[in-house]
Amino acid sequence: MSETTASAASASLTPAAAASVPSAGVAAPGAGGDATLTARGRRAMVALRAVQVLLALFFGLASALPKLIAHPSAVEVFDTIGWGGAGMYAIGVLELAGAVALLVPVLQSLAATALSALMVGAFAVQVTVFAGENAATPVVLIVPLLLIAWVRRRHTAELVRWVQRRS
């Protein structure tokens, strides 16, 4: 039975019978605080967290580290772009900060948004400077980053409230 069918079916059942029908995965809005996830919803959140960890590892180790240690391949790329060492280190620091922030709950949505913006820039550089040679890589990375930013957006609201209380 699909989730839509299950929700429609549960509306026509008695409360006791409706409790046994699977729902869409979260409690009704305003049902008392945090939404309670079903097993399927918990698995989805665990999977999303795993994607966050993998992206953090990618941005921290495979992307930022070569820039921060001035690996010859990174130096060559940034010299070709015309940004030199300063641009290479700046992008490396931004990627490393984003990788770390992806692992901090209150920063994860903001980090995913910032890394997405960085990937838009990487895509533009790939298309304009390198004739689209590796243009698919930033596009592929943007998809899970935007998913993380959307699903974890509640954390951005928490961060804004925290900053407002501190000022």
From TrEMBL:
Pfam families membership: DoxX_2
Compartments, record wording: Membrane
Membrane topology value: Multi-pass membrane protein
InterPro entries: DoxX
Main subcellular location: membrane
Transmembrane segments: 46-69, 81-103, 110-129, 135-151
Keywords of this entry: Membrane, Transmembrane, Transmembrane helix
The keyword Oxidoreductase belongs to this UniProt entry's keyword annotation: no
Keyword hit for Transferase: no
Protein name, as recorded: DoxX family protein
